[in-house]
Design brief:
The chain is α+β, with helices and mostly antiparallel strands and 761 residues long. It folds into 5 domains: 271 residues, Rossmann fold, CATH 3.40.50.300; 110 residues, Translation factors (Elongation Factor Tu (Ef-tu), domain 3, Beta Barrel); 69 residues, Elongation Factor G (Translational Gtpase), domain 3 (Alpha-Beta Plaits); 120 residues, Ribosomal Protein S5, domain 2, CATH 3.30.230; 82 residues, 2-Layer Sandwich (Alpha-Beta Plaits). The protein is built from 19 helices and 37 strands. A hairpin with a 6-residue loop joins strand 26 and strand 27. InterPro entries: EFG_II, EFG_III, EFG_III/V, EFG_IV, EFG_V-like, EFTu-like_2, G_TR_CS, P-loop_NTPase.
């Protein structure tokens, strides 16, 4: 029994009887989707336990690939909005998902926005994410809680730098994805080149499920390779869909691409592989079933085509979301049992099981803090008591809402697989909420380190209160936005992911808090490291009447190898940061009890605290191993404080002997310019001490890939515009910290010395 537009499939014995005998009659979609057998999960749905038709998806891409425009069309076709507005529309309304005034003004997405809609029989939760690398945390936390994603690619730009970053994030959280080649109406559109880039640059096993009917200004629709039929879109909003036979001019290409699709999926799906080897032609349902199994298993990525702006292909993409992406119960979600030394526990997408949910995003709303919650197990109800397992605090759920961009809809309860928001709950991003008696925690998301800092101060004393409120709120909302007080200068330093990131927060202070801010020169977040092994032997001894202080530490420090650093970085990416501080590894190599075991932890704390302030320019030290080989303690005078102070002083004593170096953040930069400006732009990159990695001609443009020190990239956007008559654009993201040259190191050390003298005076 299937909804209109879906081929009916045969239900297992006994299931049809249950449906026929139901009062009122149940409508059940094609069994287990796309012809796959109906398992226990779908039977549970028939009894009202879980919803196998639900989808939680994210829309992610490079800047200006059309994510928000695509979401606007999805909301229109699913009936959530009744008018289409453009991102930079002349009517001044702006897209629904860009609810912030700054987003509508700049034409970019700054915060991820959640909404929900219904397509045919499926409830779809959607999160629209930013494309700019400065707001990468928004993509990171969205993908952490989603079951599937749409990776939007521009048919002209293809796979760009942020497309690669987003794909890496999808892999990190094991998110299956569909690819959508957007903007097939643009001049220079070439979806087949994009498919090759998806295979070569993203290393995805991908094949097209569509063939475009015309490109550029002749783009009218697509041929659906699964059903082998032509679909064209007409009418003012693309709502009039005509289905017909494949045009004769496209028949050879369609035949070739359909064969390629079947071969690609048959390589990774056993059932379709058997049909293919027998030389048989798979039916529509068999092919859909195979694509679904391979997509859910993350061994295949179907590639759709269309133009969101011209309203072409969006409805077929929605069908693809329902047909090929997993339901919440088909994804394995693992929590850590805090009562059993963080043993992994597989959660069940069952509304009757004990509640487990993850707070993945915070936002300051009109009615207080808004906490976005993904429910993995159980049911949350208004008025119910839940526990924050990070703090142990019990909370009564005051209000439960479902979000539609900035609009809210009150709900009384939400079940496993849903995304909702809570009001008035004090928590941090990444906290786990559970039923009393269930003590588990979800693994946290990866938070990248800030790469740039600014000194900020309110222009007048009267604005100090609002200034503090704004900084406090932004820190709670955004884990990549850090605030600290510089002890030497007394300045407030804000740190973030780039110039745009910090500019947006300064602008938000002005608009939302009426707080005018003085902004200092941008600062780069340097690091320090050691390059040689060095021994230390330090005795901390102090006697001032009564019990004194006594602690002796002996050992050595050495730099970590590249392999060790990679292993530590991989470990911290998965949320395991319990024993690392800036990749400082402490080892106890003492044989016997020269130092009482109770004082070893104090030595560890002392060394790691000392490493937060390097001896060259006062920046944190990273990539170092500290090994304790001997020491001495006193029966009366030794204490944890004595050994901590001994470790601090030993680090300062040994640091210069270990040949320290300064590391600076280096950015991966991708510049797209018309080919006539190639020489000028490359010359400018060289003057900025950049290294050219690649230069590829694409149509009339050249894409230059290079690495450049961050401190040399300040103000680059203005210079690039003037060099290219406003036609050039660039994106950059953090690459790694690299050692600076000797002359730069001497200059930075001299500058730091002057600052310290001035502060002391």
């Amino acid at each position: 029994i299937a909804p209109t537009g879906f081929a009916p499939t045969i239900a297992p014995t006994g299931f049809a009887d249950a449906i026929v005998g139901a009062t009122p009659p149940l409508r059940v979609r094609s069994v287990g989707f796309c012809g796959s057998p109906l398992g226990g999960s779908a039977r549970a749905f028939a009894s009202g336990a879980i919803d196998p038709l639900a989808r939680n998806i994210g829309i992610s891409a490079h800047i200006d690939s059309g994510k928000t425009t695509l979401t606007e069309r999805i909301l229109f076709y699913t009936g959530r909005i009744h008018e289409i507005h453009e991102v930079r529309g002349k009517d001044g309304v702006g897209a629904k998902m860009d609810s912030m005034e700054l987003e509508r003004e700049k034409g970019i997405t700054i915060q991820s926005a959640a909404t929900y809609c219904k397509w045919k029989d499926s409830n779809v939760n959607i999160i629209d994410t930013p494309g700019h690398v400065d707001f990468t945390i928004e993509v990171e936390r969205a993908l952490r809680v989603l079951d599937g994603a749409i990776l939007v690619l521009c048919s002209v730009g293809g796979v760009q730098s942020q497309s690669i970053t987003v794909d890496r994030q999808m892999r990190r959280y094991g998110v299956p994805r569909l690819c959508f080649v957007n903007k097939c109406d643009r001049t220079g559109a070439d979806p087949w080149r994009v498919l090759e880039q998806v295979r070569s640059k993203l290393k995805l096993n991908a094949a097209a499920v569509h063939v475009p009917i015309g490109l550029e200004d002749k783009h009218d629709g697509v041929v659906d390779l699964v059903r082998n039929e032509a679909v064209t879109f007409s009418g003012p909003n693309g709502s009039d869909i005509k289905i017909g036979p494949v045009p004769e001019t496209l028949a050879p290409l369609v035949k070739r691409k359909r064969k390629e699709l079947i071969e690609t999926v048959a390589e990774v799906d056993e059932t379709l592989g058997e049909i293919f080897l027998m030389g048989d032609e798979p039916s529509v349902e068999e092919l859909k079933g195979a694509i679904r199994r391979a997509t859910v298993a993350k061994t295949f990525a179907p590639l759709f085509m269309g133009s969101a702006f011209k309203n072409r292909g969006v409805q077929l993409l929605l069908d693809g979301v329902v047909d090929y992406l997993p339901a919440p119960h088909e994804v394995d979600n693992v929590a850590l049992d805090l009562d059993k030394e963080e043993a992994p526990v597989v959660l069940k997408s069952d509304p009757k099981a004990p509640l487990v949910g993850l707070a993945f995003k915070l936002e300051e709303g009109r009615f207080g803090q808004l906490t976005y919650l993904r429910i993995y197990q159980g049911t949350i109800a208004k008025g119910a008591t839940i526990v924050n397992t990070s703090t142990g605090k019990k909370i009564k759920v005051p209000r439960l809402v479902r979000m539609h961009s900035e609009e809210m809809e009150d709900v009384n309860e939400a079940k496993a697989g849903e995304i909702v928001a809570l009001f008035g709950v004090d928590c941090k991003s990444g906290d786990t909420f559970a039923e009393p008696g269930t003590n588990v925690a979800m693994t946290s998301m990866r938070v990248p380190e800030p790469v740039m800092s600014l000194a900020v101060a309110p222009k007048s004393r009267a604005e100090s209160a609002n200034f503090s409120k704004a900084l406090s709120r932004f820190q709670r909302e955004d884990p990549t936005f850090k605030v600290r007080l510089d002890e030497e200068s007394g300045q407030t330093i804000i740190s973030g992911m780039g110039e745009l990131h910090l500019d947006i927060y300064v602008e938000r202070m002005r608009r939302e808090y009426k707080c005018e801010v003085d902004v200092g020169e941008p600062r780069v977040n340097y690091r320090e490291c050691i390059t040689a092994k060095a021994n230390f032997d330090y005795l901390h001894k102090k006697q001032s009447g009564g019990s004194g202080q006594y602690g002796r530490v002996v050992g050595y420090v050495e730099p970590l190898s590249e392999e060790e650093l990679k292993a530590l970085n991989a470990s911290s990416s998965s949320g395991n940061e319990s024993d690392k501080t800036n990749n400082i590894v402490f080892e106890n190599g003492i044989i016997g009890n020269a130092i009482s075991p109770g004082y070893i932890l104090a030595c560890d704390k002392g060394f790691k605290e000392a490493a937060q302030t390097g001896g060259l320019i006062g920046h944190p030290v990273e990539g170092m191993r500290v090994v304790l080989t001997d020491g001495a303690s006193h029966a009366v005078d030794s204490s944890e404080m004595a050994f901590k102070l001994a470790a601090l002083s030993a680090f300062r004593q040994v640091y210069d002997k270990a040949k320290p170096k300064i590391l600076e953040p280096v950015m991966q930069v991708e510049i797209t310019v018309p080919s006539e400006f190639q020489g000028t732009v490359i010359g400018n990159v060289n003057r900025r001490k950049g290294t050219i990695q690649d230069s590829v001609a694409e149509g009339d443009d050249v894409i230059i890939t290079c690495v450049v020190p961050l401190k040399n990239m300040f103000g680059y956007s203005t210079e690039l515009r003037s060099m290219t008559q406003g036609k050039g654009e660039f994106t950059m993201e953090y690459f790694q910290h690299q050692p600076v040259s000797q002359d730069v190191q001497a200059e930075l050390c001299a500058e730091y010395g002057k600052t310290r003298k001035a502060a002391a005076a």
